[in-house]
Design a protein that fits this description.
Blueprint: H1 3-10, H2 37-50, E1 55-58, E2 62-66, E3 73-79, E4 85-91, H3 101-117, E5 122-129, E6 137-145, E7 151-152, H4 158-181, E8 190-192, H5 199-205, E9 213-217, E10 221-226, E11 231-235, H6 242-248, E12 255-258, E13 262-267, E14 270-275, H7 276-289, E15 298-301, E16 305-309, E17 313-318, H8 323-344, E18 349-352, H9 358-370, E19 375-380, E20 391-398, H10 399-402, E21 414-423, H11 436-442, E22 447-453, H12 458-469, E23 474-478, H13 480-488, H14 491-495, E24 501-504
Parallel strand pairs: 21-22, 22-23
Antiparallel strand pairs: 1-2, 2-3, 3-4, 4-6, 4-7, 5-6, 8-9, 9-10, 10-11, 11-17, 12-13, 13-14, 15-16, 16-17, 18-24, 19-20, 20-21
């Protein structure tokens, strides 16, 4: 995170909760100077924020945008060494040691939920510990991960920043409803201890521990944070505004995939993964907290936390749900799918168009190569200007690709091979591929793959075998049978090219009980 981590540890501004007297900002005294590109960028941010009714404050290198001078959350824009502004969120409430941990928790959670729900970003929540007690969450910083709004460049991502301001204001409106309905103010009470909480809390979390923080806010909002696991639950059911706020929080409407150990969640460029083990722990905990729950849990995975909205409140658990976990699970899912496709497609049959389009055939071959785990990259280098559709491309492949089906202990070095596609009404003949050696030398490649449809003539087979015996370079030829073998292991790829090849599903097997 670099300079963002430095930034969040140096923020000096402090704000009061709604209803408190406006705080004076002693650092607000910008000196007049000629307009620069940096100042123009700040002016643009100021203008975007003002259009949504934000209050603006400045120091020499930072700008602060909040919906009121007495609000506990705001967006900070900090100038970096490249002359751009780095944006991040801050949640901070003023109070005695430990007495605002619960507020910083659920306020930042509601903000993060709205940002993720509206697909602005996948937030990373960073805690600032209290000065006297490590249990205290003195502040929370919201980093806008997996997003174009992390860095602001005027004229490049204005639309994304507009959405950030708009959805942050929406989150503030929901927070304000709960804050006012609970009667929270600068002198409200946080009564520590399980004796102020419903029995379900002690049943769910067990005996109160020295390192845990729990209590009742304003006689309304019950809160428990298990410090060791960084799992917290804010019971908002005693707040009259919670049912309405909960109704305003919808699901992600995301594409969902299931790997062996996680649920993959994908929405318009934002990627998250929910580990099954954490999901099960959360479900067991919520069941103990609310045995009579009538509604399902709505999950909002972020980079650092899994946030769950329930009928009674919000549960937050520190979990790696971010892009790195998604990438690892996605690779595993691909490997599992390849194995399953190979099994499911074992008996599949294919019917080809009587006139296979050469360009579409080339695209099919490229797709098969790109989805092969032994192929690193495929790029085109030729032109499809021949009647039979000949086009060259270079594939970067591993030794496993070159020696598939044999036992090879050689290191997994990367080799470049030329791939040439040929389409003909009859088998491709030798006279159409006389330039194999010249083509390999031209691109300084280590091999040549000829993909011919529907097949190759006997003279061409002999020609390829003669080159193979001379061991000049790796050479191989795929025909229709070889392509179909690879399509059986990748039925989803075959179905994307139904205009040139159709898949007939395997015969159904009926197993009768004896």
């Amino acid at each position: 995170m670099g300079y963002v981590e430095d930034a969040v540890s140096e923020v000096k501004i402090r704000m009061l909760p709604p209803g408190a007297p406006p705080a004076k900002n002693s650092e607000q005294a910008p000196s007049p100077a000629p307009q620069t590109e940096v100042e123009s960028g700040r002016d643009k941010l100021d203008s975007l924020a003002a259009s949504f009714g934000y209050c603006v404050q400045h120091t020499d290198e930072r700008s602060f945008y909040s919906i009121g001078e007495a609000w506990p959350l705001w967006i900070t824009a900090e100038l970096n060494s490249h002359g751009d502004y780095v944006l991040y969120g801050t949640v901070r409430c003023r109070g005695q040691v430990g007495c605002r941990t619960d507020l910083n928790d659920w306020v930042s959670a509601l903000w993060a939920i709205n940002l993720r729900m509206w697909r602005i970003c996948s937030p990373f929540l960073v805690d600032e510990e209290g000065f006297c007690d490590s249990r205290e969450r003195a502040a929370r910083f919201v980093l806008f991960d997996q997003s174009d709004v992390n860095t602001f460049r005027a004229g490049e991502n204005d639309g994304e920043v507009v959405m950030l301001f708009m959805i942050t204001r929406r989150a503030c409106e929901l927070i304000s409803q709960l804050w006012q309905a609970a009667g929270i103010n600068q002198i409200d009470r946080f009564d520590y201890g399980l004796n102020f909480l419903p029995k379900s809390f002690s049943d769910a979390f067990g005996k109160e521990r020295d390192m845990d923080v729990c209590g009742l806010r304003s006689g309304t909002i019950a809160y428990y944070r298990r410090f060791a696991e960084d799992t917290s639950f804010t019971d908002l059911s005693g707040c009259a505004a919670w049912p309405e706020v909960r109704e305003m929080i919808g699901g992600l409407g995301a594409a969902v995939g299931e790997s062996l150990s996680a649920r993959l969640v994908r929405t318009e460029g934002v990627r998250n993964a929910i580990p099954r083990s954490d999901q099960r722990r959360i479900e067991r905990l919520l069941k103990r907290l609310d045995p009579d729950a009538r509604t399902s849990i709505v999950n909002f995975p972020c980079e650092s936390h899994l946030l769950c909205v329930t009928e009674k409140g919000i549960l937050a658990r520190r979990v790696n749900c971010g892009a790195d976990r998604y990438a690892a699970e996605f690779i595993t899912l691909q490997e599992v799918n390849r194995a399953n496709n190979s099994f499911l497609g074992r008996d599949a049959s294919f019917s080809w168009s009587p006139n296979v389009n050469p360009a579409r055939f080339e695209e099919l071959v490229h797709s098969l190569l790109n989805e092969d785990p032994q192929v690193q990259r495929v790029k085109q280098v030729g032109h499809s200007n021949e009647p039979d559709g000949g086009r060259d491309c270079i594939a970067e492949v591993t030794q496993g690709f070159l020696h598939r089906g044999t036992k090879q202990d050689a290191p997994e070095q990367i080799s470049q091979i030329i791939v040439q596609c040929k389409v003909s009404l009859k088998n491709v003949g030798k006279n159409t591929v006389l330039d194999i050696r010249d083509t390999v030398d031209r691109y300084s490649a280590q091999g040549f793959l000829l993909v011919s449809f529907p097949g190759i003539t006997r003279p061409l087979v002999d020609y390829i075998e003669s080159m193979r015996t001379r061991n000049l370079f790796w050479i191989e030829a795929w025909t229709k049978a070889d392509i179909e073998a690879r399509l059986r292991a990748n039925l989803s790829c075959a179905r994307r090219y139904s205009d040139i090849v159709k898949v007939s599903d395997s015969q159904s097997l009926v197993i009768q009980a004896t």
